[in-house]
Write a structure and sequence with these properties.
With 442 residues, the chain is of the alpha+beta class. Helices cover 33% and strands 23% of the residues. A seven-stranded mixed β-sheet has the order 11-10-12-14-15-9-16. Helix 8 packs across helix 10 (315-332).
């Protein structure tokens, strides 16, 4: 296959359709936002060509681009902090500086890319990988890149600051934006009460993000079919001897990946290393009373599962440990991250985490986010649902991201250092369970 090339056609700053009222100009972030890094997360959606795009790709791309830009302007009025700029770690100046929209063209058909997705090529579809765009956007918190393939298919890449949004917040934004693009009169509204639930505090130099340093790491994609997950479930149930115990798909997939990753570390170092898996939890529905799904901001926190002995890497033991630790976290910690005691609870959680890393120098840590059950494939701007969607992690190694596929499988995006990944992707136990980067039908 020839090298795929894209070129930027235009860059546009998009302002809100209505100015932000003066009394809303200073926006306070929540404590969890304050602890989040000021980096951009990304998500890319791939849309096959529809009939109009096949007939006249350039005209149809221009029409869709105009719709996107108008709906972004409309959406920025409702999500007014996203049109502002950060003043400091806990404050946004809602000055209507705007979001940033980039048009690009790719010289290949969409099917060429989706036949075997390449994560180095995927960089070309992101707005944040272009230095000139980042300089011109001047601190924009929401960037969008709209790319046309030669066949008329398109991608929409969304880059949103992690300072004010987790995956659930991104979904609220996508829902409102796509509704506006499809012409709905009353799109979904965000709930900006985060700072009243968990007010920011003075905590200089402290971050709640969990980074696993990796100078040179590799991202790979694996897909686990529904039938393979069903096999794992039967195996775990038979090993526990408890028919009433039904492990979730996420628990099963994570346990298998974690076990294989730990085996790779042993083959690389010559001995078993204690290991931990940090799993992010959406706190909104876990609080008492539950928070609305539309509460905007960062409302996630991880719980940690530890394996100190190699014998505890058996699949059923990992699954049980995940379930028990999660239940303990939800019952005893999750609801404390709000109100008067929220600051103390978070500081205690950060202190516990610091102690873990201070006292366990050889601990091998993995970080997991699951987007399973999030309706990402329902993202429809008015020309159909995506054939595929993905997100690229460019900053942190030893990460595992899970998402649903359209046919009931689970897709994994995993990062490891180069040496470990070269072993991991050929690991016999992994390959009995997962397909490595299969093609996607358009």
């Amino acid at each position: 296959m020839t090298q795929m090339k894209t070129k930027i056609v235009s860059r546009t700053c998009i302002k809100p359709s209505s100015p932000t009222p003066h009394n809303l100009r200073i926006f306070k972030l929540s404590l969890l936002d304050q602890l989040s890094p000021a980096i951009h997360g990304n998500m890319t959606f791939f849309f096959p060509a529809d009939a109009a795009a096949t007939t006249d790709p350039d005209l149809e791309f221009s029409r869709k681009s105009q719709l996107l830009q108008e709906s972004i302007s409309d959406t920025l009025t409702r999500f007014y902090p996203l049109a502002g700029r950060l003043l400091d770690a806990s404050t946004i100046n809602c000055n209507d500086s705007g979001g940033f929209f980039i048009e690009a063209q790719c010289d290949s058909p969409l099917s060429d890319f989706l036949s075997k997705p390449n994560f180095e090529t995927l960089d070309q579809f992101l707005p944040t990988t272009d230095p000139q765009t980042m300089e011109l956007s001047k601190g924009s918190m929401w960037l969008i890149k709209f790319t046309k393939f030669s066949c008329g298919g398109t991608t929409i890449s969304v880059s949103l600051t992690h300072k004010i949004a987790d995956i659930a917040a991104l979904l609220t934004l996508l829902k409102s934006w796509t509704e506006a693009c499809r012409g709905l009169r009353e799109p979904t509204l965000p709930d900006f009460t985060g700072s009243s639930l968990l007010p920011p505090r003075e905590i200089p130099g402290m971050s709640g993000s969990l980074n696993i340093a990796g100078d040179r790491f590799i991202a790979r994609r694996f897909v686990i079919s529904a039938s393979k997950i069903a096999e794992l479930k039967e195996k775990v149930i038979s090993m526990t001897g408890r028919e009433q115990y039904y492990p979730s798909r996420v628990e099963l997939v994570l346990a298998k990946l974690w076990k294989c990753a730990a085996a790779v570390v042993k083959s690389k170092t010559g001995s078993f290393k204690p290991t931990a898996l940090f799993q992010a939890v959406n706190l909104r529905g876990r609080m008492d009373p539950p928070l609305p799904d539309a509460v905007f901001g960062n409302f996630v926190w991880p719980f940690a599962v530890f394996v100190e002995e190699e014998s505890d890497l058996e699949l059923h033991k990992l699954v049980q440990s995940m379930r028990e630790t999660k239940i303990d976290f939800l019952n005893n910690k999750a609801n404390k991250f709000r109100g008067e005691g929220g600051f103390s609870a978070l500081m205690e959680a950060l202190k516990e985490r610091a102690e873990i890393f201070r006292n366990r120098k050889e601990l091998v840590v993995y970080k997991c986010s699951s987007w399973c059950k999030f309706p990402l494939y329902e993202t429809d701007f008015g020309w159909g649902k995506p054939a595929w969607m993905t997100s690229i992690n460019k900053l942190v190694s030893n990460t595992i991201s899970l998402q649903d596929t359209t046919d009931g499988a689970v897709e994994v995006l995993m990062t490891l250092d180069e040496e470990e990944m070269s072993i991991f992707e050929r690991h016999e136990e992994l390959l009995e369970f997962a397909s490595v980067n299969p093609g996607i039908d358009v």
